[in-house]
């Protein structure tokens, strides 16, 4: 079974516009994560209730993880703009994204069980762990593709 939409070849202009949109989205994500983290830290300084830290800490951890993922995505897009797609550095960046999401899920799970107000039943950490595993799987496939390309380059 073939999908015609997969076989579509993109022109240089379409690829450039897609890369610009992805860069803008990653940049906006980074900027919003920084601004939101700063406002949460400011609110932490003003609020003196003992449970407030348990309310904002999970969001701060997630924002930090998404900030790291955004920076790694921008670094990967920089390599793609240089026409360096299937290289070990991009595989390491994909692994970094997956690892960041995995650590975020584990920290959220730990905070969920340590928090005195953990009766909400929220298990959002499972989503981050699942997405992190997916990125690590993509990393394995990417590394396999790099090895296949290197073998093909050696074959004359």
Molecular structure report:
It is a single chain. This protein is an all-alpha fold. The chain contains four helices and no strands. The chain has helices spanning 12-46, 52-81, 88-114, 125-154. Helix 1 (12-46) packs antiparallel against helix 2 (52-81) and helix 2 (52-81) runs antiparallel to helix 3. The chain is elongated. The two termini are 32 Å apart. The mean pLDDT is 86.
What about the largest sheet? none
Low-confidence stretches: none
Written as H for each helix and E for each strand, in order along the chain, the element string is HHHH
Mean pLDDT across residues: 86
How many runs of DSSP E, i.e. beta strands?
A: 0
What's the N-to-C terminus distance? 32 Å
Strand content: under 5%
Radius of gyration based on Cα positions: 20 Å
Shape from CA axes?
Answer: elongated
In DSSP terms (H or I, runs of 4 or more residues), the helix count works out at 4
**Share of helix among residues?**
over 70%
Q: Would you tell me the structural class of the helices and strands?
A: mainly alpha
Write a compact overview of the structure shown.
By secondary structure, this protein is mainly alpha-helical. It has helices at residues 12-46, 52-81, 88-114, 125-154.
